[in-house]
Every structure is written in C-alpha cells, then in structure tokens.
Amino acid sequence: MIQEFKKFIARGNVMDLAVGVIVGASFSSIVTSLVDNILMPVIGVITGGINFSDGLTLTVEDATINFGSFIQSVIDFLIIAFCIFILVKIVNKIMGKEEKSAPKAADVVLLEEIRDLLKKQTKEVKNKK
User: Fold this and answer.
1) 110 found inside a domain
2) Are 40 and 72 in contact (CB under 8 A)?
3) Burial profile 55-69: b = 16 or more Cβ within 10 angstroms, e = fewer
4) E strand segments, the chain
5) Alpha carbon of residue 62 to chain centroid
6) Does any domain span residue 16?
7) How many separate domains does the chain show?
8) Considering the chain, what is the average pLDDT of its residues?
9) 3-state SS class at 58
10) Residue 125, domain member (yes or no)
C-alpha cells in the first residue's frame, strides 16, 4: 500500500496539482489585495460610500444577514476568475499555444461529401422531370 501511495504521489498530475494550488493561493492573495485596496474603494465612491462587507446587512429578529459580505465574495470571485483567465491567455500566447480551429474529423468530412452528392443527385432528378 505504501508503494502504491508513492507511485500515486510521484505521478505528474498530482505534482502539477500541488504546484497549481500553491501558486493559486499566492495569486489569490494578490487579487484579494487588488480588490480590497484598489477596486472596492473606487466602487464605494461610485455607490456613495457603501462598504459592501460592513454596510449591507439585514436584521430579522435576532439574526443578522450580512449579504454585503456575500456580494463582496462574489465580486472577489469574478475578479479572481477574470485575472486567471487573462493569465492563462498570456501564458498560452507566450508558449505558442494559440487557439487554432480544430481540423474536421474524417467522419465529418465524409458526411459532408455524402450530403453534397445527395443534393446534386436530387437536383439532377428534378431537372430530368
């Protein structure tokens, strides 16, 4: 069982995942700082000084619902996801992995040829009538 575990850990996918998690955590702190220290103050000015995290709450009897914190988390997520998207696009461009249109599969090409031949035959039959 120990040997299997060692083999599992030594696989490339597990190591890549570990590196991804570590880099992702570091990147997350950078983006969180961007959101908290740069973007949210600007959004606060635009919205009249509302602090999403502290300012938007709803009290129902003894319970306090902090939906402002939820909005803050959604904004954080969207910004982080967008930053990761941009980062992946840049890395792919640097590595030469441009998005290329996938070549058509041989089956699709054959089906298109059959379709075109059937259209041609149908036209010929109609013209003879």
Assistant:
1) no
2) yes
3) ebeeeeeeeeeeebe
4) 58-60, 63-65
5) 39
6) yes
7) 1
8) 78
9) strand
10) no
Residue 36 pLDDT: 78
Within a domain: 129: no
Residue 18 domain boundaries: 2-100
- For residue 73, give the CATH number of its domain: 1.10.1200
pLDDT given for residue 71 in this prediction:
82
pLDDT 10s digits, 40-52? 778 778 877 666 6
Is residue 53 within 8 Å of 68, Cβ to Cβ? yes
Which CB contacts under 8 angstroms, 24+ apart, belong to 60-69? Answer: none
* Residues of the chain under the 70 pLDDT cut: 9, 11-12, 49-55, 97-104, 129
Longest dimension (CA), the chain: 85
Q: How far apart are CA 21 and CA 109, in angstroms?
A: 42
